## 1
Amino acid sequence: MENATATAIAEVRHLKKSFGTKKVLKDISLAINKGENLVIFGKSGSGKSVLIKCLVGLMEPDEGDVMLMGKDISNMDYPELNVIRKKVGFLFQSGALYDSMTVRENLEFPMRGQTDVNTKETEALILETLKSVGLEDAIDKLPSELSGGMRKRVGLARALMLKPEIIFYDEPTTGLDPITSKEISKLILDIQKKYNTASIIITHDVECARITANRMIIIKEGVAVAEGTFEELSHSKDEWVCSFFH
């Protein structure tokens, strides 16, 4: 990790995190480059979600360094961290939409406080972003009027509003039927190609990993035990790694 490439947009070095006596992350190091989709794969409870929360500054690690856009976020004050977070998109498992707001209002929300964007530009951006996720006709609907897959799409559209350099996906296909899961996975790929965003995708969905991953890291009990492409890992000679794919 000390020799991570200069193009690394996010990086963690020797990350450790415990809750009481339970060691969740034992010594994780990884880097992701601009425009790359990195899938973090593993069973429930392996430390995937804790890792992503440390990466975006929602949780403080016990040890190790977290770098975003080449800057160490561990020693940043709140205003400095907010500047970095404007370059980061986050898609929560539930979509995390505001129930009382329409789709339009949910997408307007990240733009509040952006002094260099006017109302007309915001409206055009909302329409463009909704079109990119195939939901321009849902602009005036409430979240309660949308299916689970549609809410995920709106959540992704909201994450795109500030044109982030990296997007974190936390179990993007959880709770969706296989057809909708595949659609969301393909959409993640489309977003990568259209916007050249880097993405870290936390998942235990093999099909999502197959569709989206340029590279995968498999975590077992807080340790990265394997790294490679989907093809490489699916043909691993390690019985435990191979068990994920067969």
Note: The longest helix spans residues 178-195.
## 2
Amino acid sequence: MRFPLSLTLSLSKYIISQRVLGKKRFPLVLMLEPLHACNLSCTGCGRIREYADTLGKRMTLDECTKASEECGAPVVSICGGEPLIYPEIGELVSRLIDMGRHIFLCTNALRLKESLDLFTPSTYLSFNVHLDGQAEAHDAIVCRDGTFETAVDAIREAKSRGFIVTTNTTVYKETDMDDVEGLLVRMSELGVDSHMIAPGYDYESVKNGELFLTREDTHEKFRDIDKLTRFPLSDTPVYVEFLKGLRDLPCAAWGNPTRNPVGWRSPCYMLADTHYHTFEELMAKTDWDAYGPDRDVRCKDCMLHCGFEPSAVLNPGKGLADLIKIAAWQMR
């Protein structure tokens, strides 16, 4: 299966219950950023620039678990910043799993190998390692030599201990898709469980026209992504069709709300027009209809999975045919 059976069942049960309750908008994945501090300064990262004045702040354990309780999403993506810098990361993961949450711990893996003793292998925990290509390409993006091989060593150790490991690859203008294919070959040899591939997005705080993709660039980059489907991609087939320009999807940014040391980020993981104190305020006060590629110029080129995968899952455009397509994809 594409994802652990426990995750599939939890998501299915949750989505059905929310539909029965008549909810129009509800979160699927909580993007939890307990801190924004990082041990890398990656070229395309907006967080260390957006939150330069609050890099020393971090959420308490209780604030983190309260955020998950408020949100209610069955999946929690612990990101940042580098979450393995968070002093209580082992306890945080343990608490969230006890709450029945499925965890994707997003990491650059520089501290992963030395941190493995903090965790216990579980179908509720996946280490999501960010790799933007093979050694030369990845090390250039993260601006530090040797990071790729450090990550490979950590992945090898994590898999040997029985942990679920996934990868997350951001595609930029200069990304060579043949290099991405080579990365997936290497990761398959290590036994990596699945791979997310998505286009980069032009953070307002970065503004690098030579780095990020326009919508047309994305269609061109992902035109031949089908040759990568022999690998266990975690991009849904509906989202892949969207990336290739074969269909349109509305943005469902509310499906992946973000909580960080400043508050609930609105409207989405990429844009921060304001921050709210509670999840309820975020959902009630954000004008969700004001955002999207045809409504806000900042959204024009965004095709990021954080906004569009929820729509692919919750609002498949061709009804039953898309549902069958996604179900078959999950079972492979």
Note: The mean pLDDT is 91.
## 3
Amino acid sequence: MASFFENELSERGFLVYRTAGASMKPLLKQGRDLVTVRPVTRPLKKYDVPLYRSKRDGRQVYILHRIVKVLPDGYVIRGDNTYFDERGVTDADIVGVMTAFKRKGKDVSVESRAYKAYVRIWCFVYPLRKLVRPVYSKLRKAL
């Protein structure tokens, strides 16, 4: 049975929805930002943000996370605000790819220079963010 997401993509050729969850912060903020997802029309590459099906707690969920590595048999995917990789995501799991988002009334294309710069910087500093996070968490608890 197709989901709302898949039906919208099939019938309208695109999907616009408000984000839920904090896994793509700071790029996307829960309840504030709208994302536009379109069907995949080309091979996906590193830094693309696909909407994909995944099993969590025995049920199917839809997740919007970033590709951090392309493998011969699938993708390694991670949320911008998470520190674990999801492996084994294949083209068969992917229902669409983010092409734009709207923040505070402003449309941002994933093809824009500002977006591409953000992505490269944010992904480049991932190892540092991963090291600093435990220290930051301890400081927050202490204060």
Note: The chain has one domain: 4-142.
## 4
Amino acid sequence: MIKYLGSKRTLVPVLGKLAQASGAETSVDLFTGTTRVARALKELGQTVTATDLASYSHVFAKTWIELNANSVPQQELTDALAHLNAVPGEAGYFTQAFCVDARYLQPKNGERVDAIRELIEHDYAGTWLYYPLLTSLILAADRVDSTTGLQMAFLKNWSARSHKPLALTDPGLIIGNGTALQGDALELARQLPAVDLAYLDPPYNQHRYFANYHVWESLVRWDKPATYGIANKRIDVRDDNTKSAFNSRKTMADSLAQVVADLQCETLILSYNNESWLSRAELAAICEPKGRVEILDFDFKRYVGAQIGVYNRSGEKVGEPGQARNIEHVVVAGPTQKVKRMLAAL
């Protein structure tokens, strides 16, 4: 799985136990990101709907949530991966933008990304292989990048992993049923059918995933946009229409409350942390319409970029490390007896 700010890797065991104890057969992961939680729910046998606004996240959801491993010819994927791995590199937009003008990957791997991405678009668009191949390419690029996990900057010196050759591997499809939807959570919450369980992991602050992972966004869209700044972000990162109501202190609370109110679900699980704008009391008040509310707190180490400080392009330190740990809040809301049963499962 790609390096991702806000990843719920360490929380998945807890979330899985809560979800299983809820007895849910259907669920929705409304801010699915890398689909880590949605996949855990699917592996529990739930029929999952995974939604997000980001294009790269939609690719993951189309791969791991919507595709059923028992319903596709696996050999076709194996053959396609072997075909793409044999493609020689050819420098193009990706190499120039993200390996020369910026230094996210070494040029030799950027050339492979360019050649493989062009071939995926030419040979596999419109087939069931399109999304798992794109997923495999993102995973492969992430394994040889030179960042601390955010695409707001890159390391002064090439990381050790960046010297390895880019290689596509099977993304590992999951047995079961699901749906992938791309769109704004405020709009989708009003349109989604009723589910047994809803999981929400909304953005915590002003930092947008659209900007944090702009390289993956451009790789998926393959629209080869103009870029700006040292990080070579997409030019539309500056546009107001790419900004979310969840990234504004003025609108975040009301937006989250609206989503919770609009979702048709028996039980709600929401994860948030103490670096955010909302207090535990505010989170509880937002979730109260769903029933009894309980909040669990978990202490975790922050992502590596926050621990090493901030450096400019010349390698000079321009910012101090932030706090080393944060508190993750897990809010559980629903019928009293069900909430009690879920907490007793931990």
Note: The first strand starts at residue 26 and ends at 29.
